[in-house]
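I am writing to request your help with a piece of structural work I have in hand. I set the record out below, with my sincere thanks for your time.
___
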Amino acid sequence: MVSSRAFPLRSTPLNHGSYQHTTPQASTEQTNVYSRSSDRQRSVASESLLPDRSLREDGNQEPLLPPPSEPPTIQSPLRRKPLPSRNSDVQYSILPKNEAVTKASSVSSGAKHSVHSERSSWIPYVLEWPWMLSIIAFGAILLAIVIIFHRISTKSDGVMDDTGSPIGYFAWRFLPTLLAVAYVTMLMIILDGVKRTENLARLAKERGTSASASILRTPGSWWTALADSFPRKGNDSRFSPTMLCVVLAYIFGFLIISPFSSALLSSKDMAISSKTTMLRVQPASGQTLQPRLDTTDFFGAVGHTLQNVTTSPWVTDNYTVLPFWPAQIERPSGSTFDAAIGDWTAETSVYQSGLLCEDLKVENGPNVVNYTYLTPNSDGSRSSKVGYQNLTSFQLTSESGCKYSFSYSESFLTQGKFYWSNLTGVNLPLFWNFFAIDEQVLLNHTALCEPGEVLITIPNDPSNSAFETAGKLCRPSYFEAKLPVTVSISSDSTAFDFDQKAFERERLPIDNDKINITAFHEAFFSSDWNDYLREPTSDSRPDSGGPANLLAATYDFKLAGMMNDTDFSARAGKIKQYSFGQALQSALQDSSAVSPVEGDIIVRQRRIVVATAVAFTLEVVLALATLLLLMAFWTSRRSRRPLGLSQDIGVSNTVASLVADQHKTCQDLQEISSMSAQQATQALSGYSYVIDRSALRMVASIPDGSSFSSTRSVKVTKRDRIQWEPKVLSTWAIVGLIFVLSALLVTIAVLYWYSQSHGLYQSAFVYQVEWNIGDYSLGYIAPYSIIPTLFAVIVGLWWGALESIFRTAQPFISMAKGPTTGGKGAGLSYQSSYLAWAGVRAVSRKHWLLAFVCTGAFLSQILAISMSALWQREPFQLERPLEVAQPFQIRDVAFLYDNASYYKTAKYKQAILADAFQNLETNWMYSAALQLAMNASQPAWSSEGWSFVPVSITSSLEENRQQTNSSSDEPQGKVAVATVNVPAVRGRLQCSPLAPELEDKFWLTEVDLTADGPWNQTLKPRPWENGYILGCDGNYRSGINYSPNMTDLNGTSGNCSYIGGYTTVLAEIIVTCCAQESEHQPDNASVGYWSPVNLELFAPGSTKLLQTDNFTVKWIYGPAPVNYPSESDRLPSLIWPKAPKLTMLNCAPVVETANASVTVDLATHNVQAYTILDEPVPHSEAFSDDFVVRRGDDRTSFNVTASFGTMFVAALLGAAQIKYIGGCAQTGRNDCYEDDTDRTFTYRAPGVNLDYMSYSMLQLAGNNQESLLNYTKLQELAEITFTTFFQHFASQDVLLDGSGGWVFQRANETLPYDLPPPDIQYDATKVGPARVAVVASPSITATVSQPVEILRMSRVAVWLCIVILAWLIITTIAILVLKNRYFSPLLRGVDTIADVAMMVAGSERYLELARREGASRLRADKTFRTRLGWFKTGAGEVRWGIELADDDTVQFLSDEEVKLIFEEDGDENGMVRSGAESPSPDQRHPGFI
């Protein structure tokens, strides 16, 4: 807005309220005072001579153009017409043609006011200090807000909570862009003020400036202003610091501040921390931790290594940490913690073990030597008896100079040997299974090997020509550091995290006084690993010892090429680190203390966060913009950048006052005004001008042939001119703008429709760009948030250029339509009014088209705000249908095992069942027990006991994977899943209590421990007189006669006589574990096993073998037993001091199927959710073939068929003694003793002797042994356990491109057509069919749900954008239709000083008024009227320009009169252009515009 400030005048102000009637005498007196000749003399005297214009003989300069011939004098004066409305009371006098216009009531007749009396101190209001400092302060406030919000967001993980309220949504989504647009609009206003006054600043210089750099200069766009700020030929090599600073600030504003503001704030799930007290475990003061590995640790290490199951959150393959937890909760246990309380952070100790390995290569060997030694006595001492042993020895070397030699004494096994130990050979004799040879003979090494560990493989026999051996020398390391550690808890996992680089910086070697590393080595390299990894059949694996057995299991016990694997050393290091972590955690149970420590609890909340990259960018740019504005403010003060004017240059009155007193300037401009625009520019380009005392003077010329030829130019009439049309108003530019606006509208509408129907998730929409400074990442910037705002800014700039032209031209358009008063014509300017305010002013003056254009400019700024709020990025699950192949169905064909030796003389059942345990990495016994005991994960394609037929989803998710280039801060709670309807299968138990009132004598044998003979009285461990052995009546198979024959108890079987069947404690095996070895061990003990029900081989009168799938679940609990030695060679007997208690269930296994809808994770195939669609039905084929013998004609060999249910139950019940996997009868013996060292699928420890199923039940019962004596509890947990084990059995070795494992089969799988029938001993009605009907693999439809980042479009923002764009399109079309008609009255441009000066240069009456009143009084006068058009002066000259409309000496001509005059002039001079027509008056009527 331009200041309306009035400046003091030297004389009394004139009162321009009205014109009063004056007498001719008074007019004559005034004419004498202000005669035209005297004015011309003053004008000529005030102008300096121009050196490049030649002098005439009279000493005066030649005019720029030859003067036109004198027009005939108009004798009759023209009467000035009164105003049509408001000034109807004004009276006008008839003045002579040379009489000046005056107002008697305004000033005394002798008053004289020239432009020189006014102060030349005008600058636009936007450059006044209040406005400038306000914008600078506003920018500084925005900078401070961004900095403060950035700091708050960084320190507090966000600015505030996202409550979802409308006010909050507006605050973070719209407000930043609203403030940015307001700031950029202010910058635009300042830039506009600087641009349109830059030519005045140049003219106000002492020496002036060239016409091309001043009066011919248009304000132009921002890029021309930027170029014009620097010294160049076009601006007389002048530098403009003010314009440079402002235009740079504006560029920063619309290119960076506006677009980036929309991405400043976003809503995200953030981790919020709060201080709290933690409890931390630490070693007891003054004590050394003794790392140890117990049964649970070995079980966990094997399960973790082979099944990748986490047994403790505090231990990983790379680190272990000391536990800590919030003080307000109990110490958590298990593999996962409760996620309700959130994540934790506190400082604790972190430990790490490492291995750095190098190759050991054979330097010497193999060599065979005969070694002589003294044989050992029974007590371990050496006897005098000499023994001989052949030893095979090797010597290996490493690049570091280590020499390592080893020897072994056993004959070589065909599967090879694998050895892992420290250099001293911990437990070496146990490993080599030879006790009499000194360890130094078996192992020796040089000093360069220390400290170290060795791993050696001998894949084949040294006598083999293809013999090879390989080894590794590994240097162990142990470190610790105290660091902040964060425990992250989710619904299905718990893990810790810390700064690993900080650990590398701060770690120190572990002090052996704090942690006994030697004790760990003894436990880790012990031979106990062999107890947990027994082979199901002998000679099926390499001879491995210690942890080498576990490492070999990860290679499926295939030694060939194992050490050439690049991951070999890493695998070994992970096994050792995990074992070290477990040993350390076990040691803490023996010696530790709990101390408080300050920590943080971290919870996730939806927060409004500041984007770091955007904030940093805005901070830099706002700071630069503020500094630039400060420099612009400093350089734009009146004292440093004077403009030489007293009024706004955008007003015609001001331009008139500039040239009113300059006759020569007016004369030249008047001559040039008849030229074309190009000719006029050429004519003026060689001259310089200056504003001096509010007057525009020509001060100098530019030499070297730049003068304009004085040849008379052709006059250009209105009808044959090249119409003035700025480029931005060209038809193509307007059509282009309509196209852009329409494209934006259509794009937004289509995207909105698509987002509602399909979703905007493609990578192009959600891609983010990382913002880095060197190696430091500032975060990510989202183009989807910036680009729409940038488009809106471009539209705003384009529309602003249109609006600027309309605002500039509107006063001249108004004067061209007819006489207008100063407030609507010569005294009107919209150049200091912007956007909505300009529209309001236009409406008040009924300038409708301008009002629409200004409203559009205002709406274009609102458009930028709306476009910035179009998108919001959210996580989303994208669903799409997909055809998938179903390669499997539930198995109904039995397994076939052929070429076996006949019946009971061979171990056929053992060999068959051993197949279920070969691959330890996928073994279902481990994974099921780990899930139940340690809350490990469920297998793929299964959940809660149900196993689902897997399908093959062949589509690649990579094709649809988003490339967002970011690690989203959003929680990774959603994964790619598929939902599909498939068959499901489940195993379950139907159990009932078995013999709850059974007397002890039917399952226990009471013995006299004082009797001589059976018991060694010298070595007996307890002074007991009697005790109890498991098993009825001395049945050393631990038989339980649950259905005793009460009439035949005196028979040979005594209490073990039965009617229908019996069971045993441990599958026909004598129980020997686990005794109380010391009084410090548990006082009570439990034995828990699942064992089969044994029936009569043949029922009376039947020739068929009776079968049952039932088995018993038993739990025995009582005072801890001990092993009593016997006098004979028999093994010690497990004696219970008192009769223990027995709870027993009779359970029938059932396999049932149903249809299900299942949702699985496509990455892991883990089931996310499922629904059983119909009632489950039994699957009879699961137990159809119970190891059915099918003999051929030769009767010496046979095939065996076994159903998957039968295989499962037999393997489940026999796994506890892998040595007797097929049952004791399969060994040909009837006195099988329990191998208490076998812990492969049993849990044997002091006080407990359990198979994996019973151990799992104990863990589910909270380790409360006595609670399992309850029938209901035992039945509940047995059913859960059976279902879980079958779930893992069904999932083992299922390969979509291969086998269906145990429970699933290919659709076309059948038994051979020539398979022999079952042996006559079997009931044929229970045997499954030899072949089944082929079921074609169907193609089914799955619904794939993929996690994506989706752009949500705001409904409010979309409709706001559509409405604004529709308004802009309609207005632009109106401009296109009306622009020619609207601008047709203008014969030339109106955007330079020269343009307006040429309009008034020949307007003598208007200039006379300007000389008298000055610019200030002219603008204050609202009564005189001006008009733009063709008029005839008092001297008879016809010209086009601005003149007083009510002066009697001025005659405005109609179009017909103008046409007639120029046709006559053309006929005389031959200059009329054929075919050209002047617009008729009806083409220029006001109408809408």
Remarks:
- The mean pLDDT is 75.
- Residues 783-817 form the longest helix (35 residues).
